[in-house]
Amino acid sequence: MNNFSYLIRQGIKSVWRNRFMSFAGFCVLTVSMLLVGLSGLIMIDCEIILQNVSEQNEISVYLNDDADIDAVGEEIKASSLTASVRYISPEDGLKQMVENYEEQKVLFDNLPYNPVPPTYMVTIKDLDRLKDASASFAQIDGVYKVNAPMDFAGFIRDLRTAFTIVGLVLIIALGTVSVIVIANTTRLSVFARRKEIAIMRVVGATNLFVKTPFFVEGMFIGLISGVASWGITKLIYERLYEMIYTNFREWTALGITNILPFSTVNWYLLGAYCVLGALLGAIGTVVSTGKYLKV
Fold it and tell me: Which residues contact 223 (CB under 8 A, 6 or more apart)?
């Protein structure tokens, strides 16, 4: 137990003794985890935004003038693909059209008849099933046309895929860079203490006894980097959150709503940062000592 506490103290002391390289490792780890953390939060927010936008996406189901409106509505509601249904009468549809094109209101005043058909606005449960839903609704008796934004649905799917790929690449790249920097930091620390290590081996120190302080050093730098990354992430994200909800309320119309508040993930993120930092520091140390520590 005394030996273990001694090794822990030596590992922590070596952080200060090699403070220049320790600071370099700290900076790289902090920046790497900061970018990973912010990217993760932004990806979650983007998924929320995309989900909000997709939920607002609707299929327009136009009916014949002589269609049984109630029967068509019941059949649409009975579909397993339907999330919600909203009926728009020809009168309400014309009124909405006039409001949308108010500058051409005079054109609507001279219409010989109401050109707007009875319409059901249908929101489906799964955006990926948009094509299936459109084909299914088009087969209903009394429906003469279905209008579905297929291009928009494809754009949403492609956007989700792109965010996922970019996030994974970023996490892998930054994690790899962090491990390499920690490994090089440990390698230089080993080189600087080569005489001390040689003396320790002469008096009978085992490989584990020699390597443990370096392992503790890497984990300690990682833990400090984790706390620093959490603090910086909190400051940046809360500022962005405040800007969106205070100064850009009109963004709500674009689906930028229900963005994740930092308080929801506050302690989870701190724990993740500390674990990730300690893990990256430990991995970098293991890689370095396994390859370069020839004792």
Answer: 274, 277, 278, 281
